[in-house]
Amino acid sequence: MLTKRDMSAGDSDETSEVPFATIVGNGRIGSTLAKAGNCLVLGRNDNIDENGKGPILIATRNDALDGIIEKCPDSRKSDLVFLQNGYLNAYLDKKGLLDNSQVLLYLSVTAMGAEAVDGVTAYNPEGLTAATGIHAEAFARRLSNLGLRCNVIDAESFKPAMFEKLSWISVFMLVGAAKGCKSVGQAGLEHSGLVEELINELTAAVEKKEAIKFPEGTVPRLNAYTDVVANFPAAVKEFAWRNKYFFDLGDEEVPIHNTLLRECQDGGLLDFSLE
Q: What does pTM read for this prediction?
């Protein structure tokens, strides 16, 4: 599958300033990004032009990454931009791609063609989506064309921001699943004390292991984002990319997190084994 999205003569000046991008993936996120125009949309099995230029935005699930990277010409691998949820650093390091552009995508697209819900909150009116790397500015301009916010930050700032987002998806999904909540909003509302305790536990453990410091306001920042996507279903998924990082820190460092995970396993709520 290959689709070229060109700009017409009727496009605005703002649209014409969007840098060209190759978008791999035509699902909810990929299709949303393509609405900004000036792009080539590929399926995950399509070939990437070795003579092409510009960012290659990978808008697929994590399980498609191996195939996309393997098929990408060596001359274009530095152009790969990773938009996936979860902890990617160890994976990218093994692939020799740790210095590639990455995006923390704080937005939700509930269905194909639906309007994107931006990560703009009362606590962070500037938005929470962030990008780093050589193609960060180009990505931010693409989102801006769609009326969405994106903060361009350096690698040093990106690392705690990445772990903060990892904490959000790991905490609210886990608490929600363990306590029988249907949504992350319900988890945050009915179990706010546990949510705060778990966020603090994870951030302290990450600061110790990674020798980084989180900016002030992690708990209210993540709570405010939960209010924006309150109806998002609560379930522990993609363990290898999300909660596994924290689970592997050990029971001494993250006792609440690991106890909740084992409770979910004992209750038959996980489709994977913790062992």
A: 0.92
